[in-house]
Amino acid sequence: MFKTICAGFNVTPDACYQDYDESIGARKSSSSGVGAKTIIFVAVFVIAINILLIYCYRRYTKREMEDEMKMQVSSIMSQYFAINEKDKSVRTIPTA
Q: 67: part of which helix (H) or strand (E)?
């Protein structure tokens, strides 16, 4: 098909001579594609970025949980001391 298209021109363009391999009857493969090293590098880079993001997220959630736990413990201790003080004041009231 490529040969037929090129034959249709009055003046044959350079692309017909450069990109067509008559021995196999097809266009020559161009070497302007992405190489295997580039694909491997990109894959490793993406995996490394994902690992870094997961690490940062886990660290962030751990800090958030610790802060939440501290607040809950503080709240419970405050309630305990309030109840304890209330019990002491009830016990110290003299009965006549």
A: helix 36-91
pLDDT for the residue 74: 92
With CA atoms as reference, report the closest residue to 20 among 38, 12, 42.
Answer: 12
Q: Is 19 helix (H, G, I), strand (E, B) or coil?
A: coil
Mean pLDDT of 68-89: 86
DSSP, collapsed to helix, strand or coil, labels residue 27 as: strand
Q: Are 46 and 52 in contact (CB under 8 A)?
A: no
Q: DSSP class of residue 26?
A: E
CA separation for the pair 81, 89 (Å, rounded): 12
Separation of CA 90 from chain center = 59
User: Are residues 25 and 3 in contact, defined by beta-carbon separation less than 8 angstroms?
Assistant: yes
pTM for the model stands at 0.48
